[in-house]
Amino acid sequence: MWYCRHEAQMRQALFFSAASIAGAFSGLLAFGIAHMDGVGGLAGWRWIFILEGILTVCVAISAYFVLFDFPETASFLTAEERAFVVYRLKYQGQVESHTGPQVAQDDQFKWKYVKAAFLDWQIWLSVWVYWGIVCPLYGISLFLPTIIKALGYKSSTAQLLTVPIYVTAAVLAVCVAYASDKKGKRSPFIVVCLCFIAVGFIMCVSSHKPGVIYAGVFIAACAIYPAFPGNITWLSNNLAGSTKRATGQAIQIAVGNLGGAMASNFYRSKDAPHYVLGHALELGFIGAGIVALIALVVNYRRINAKRDRQLAEGAHSGYTSEEMSALGDRALTFRYFL
């Protein structure tokens, strides 16, 4: 439930891949439940809402009792286990070679940390990376069956052709997350995924053959689903202090999800069946995401190197542990995750 930054992407990927699997089989489930038409005097579509709604409510109620906000309040942990979890979370992100006193991350809520999140350059660059992933994600999620149907397949066949895409994407999301956590790197995996997303959309733009377009969508989707949890995790890894981290991730997701509003207007019915304009716009956002990612990596490397020099020169001696803690990810002892 509480993980250090080098452990986080696998958990994000498992959560996100579950949504992918749900997307793959929701149509099949709805198809089966719809055959309950007339049972209890209710239409089939009503049963879809009733059964899926009951399951959601039951899970939500159980989650209230089994999920805990903080390790300090987790009743299933012993006092020693709670202390260990709190320690490893508070002191993550520091340079390993630092021999001075340990600097804990500040868990207090202060408005200055909220303000710091809104003014942090890395959050807004991360939003552009997010758009480079989420615009294609929404484009595929909202219009994949329509695109496949427009290629000449029947509605039922179009739904079935989405299943292998989502299943493969879910598996790849978990595999890439495992490799990313194992290597302790985020950016190399994200940029490779962005390049594959671009390849997929280039295939869609450059060919009118149904098989090539389907292959392009397949490649793009299989790269989107590993990239999304990687990007979310990467920003979380590089924000220190619980208030700033929570605010920063809220900004990233809230502003980033405007990509859904944009992507929903990329694919116009008059552009069917090839949707060249929609695919081209997606490519533009992918390119912007790659540029933003490169800018993040360059700046992270520069800042980490500068802090290494400052620590070697003893610049940290002018700060107390409390002052370092309040600085969060701007502290000399904090190193950005690449």
Automatic annotation (TrEMBL):
The keyword Methyltransferase does not apply. InterPro entries: MFS, MFS_trans_sf. GO terms for cellular component: membrane. GO terms for molecular function: transmembrane transporter activity. Keywords: Membrane, Transmembrane, Transmembrane helix, Transport. It is found in: Membrane. Signal peptide: none annotated. Pfam families: MFS_1. The chain crosses the membrane at residues 12-33, 45-67, 128-148, 160-180, 186-205, 212-228, 276-300. The keyword Chloroplast does not apply. Its main location: membrane. It is a multi-pass membrane protein. This is MFS general substrate transporter.
